[in-house]
Amino acid sequence: MLRNCNKIPLERFKKELGINTLFQMELFVDGDNANKIFEIIQKNNNRFKRALYEMLLGRYNNDLYGKENVSPKTKYVTAIKFKKRGNANLRIYCIEIFKDLTPNYKRIIMVDSYHKKTNKIDKKLKNFIENIGTYEYTFE
Q1: Distance between CA atoms of 74 and 55, rounded to whole angstroms?
Q2: Do residues 58 and 107 touch, judged by C-beta distance below 8 A?
Q3: What is the DSSP string of the chain?
Q4: Is 18 exposed, middle or buried (CB count within 10 Å of its CB: 0-12, 13-18, 19+)?
Q5: Average per-residue pLDDT in the chain?
Q6: What is the mean pLDDT of residues 13-37?
Q7: Structure pTM?
């Protein structure tokens, strides 16, 4: 089943930070989880901006934004990582979609959030990440 996602405009952010690169990225948010994701972004705005900066440059920074390869099903699953506060290690899990015909171009969809409680990937989290890896989206 195809899921809906909404595009997030990035032009103002790119202009504000003076980002001009050959790498192109579009950012989307899952339609069903948008409110929850935007609430997390609002509470962690500075950290999100730092992660977004890395994403726009096409880089991975394990402290901010990185791949979550826990199985072959999660090849294109990534996570925006927020600092550990108390007991919560909050993540926004994403899917990266690359266009074969356009080099240096990808779409990133922020899919869902998760409060990771340990440094390890337990069975529950692995199932959660693998499930995200199976999602397919329509783009408007």
Answers
A1: 18
A2: no
A3: -EEEEEEE--HHHHHHHT---S-EEEEEEETTTHHHHHHHHHHTHHHHHHHHHHHHTT--BTTTEEE--SSGGGTTEEEEE---BTTBEEEEEEEEEE-SSSTTEEEEEEEEEEEE-SSS--HHHHHHHHHHTT-EEEE-
A4: exposed
A5: 88
A6: 89
A7: 0.91
CA angle 98, 130, 2 (to 5 degrees): 60
Q: In whole angstroms, give the CA distance from residue 84 to residue 97.
A: 28
What is the spatial distance between Cα 129 and Cα 123, in angstroms, rounded to a whole number? 10
Give every CB contact of residue 20 below 8 A, 6+ residues apart in sequence.
14
Match 């390890």 to its residue by tokens.
120
Residues 58-113: tens digit of each pLDDT: 889 988 999 988 888 899 999 999 876 666 689 999 999 987 777 788 999 999 99
Instruction: Pull the structure tokens for residue 96.
Output: 């990266």
- Give the amino acid at 52: L
Spacing of C-alpha 65 from chain mean position: 7
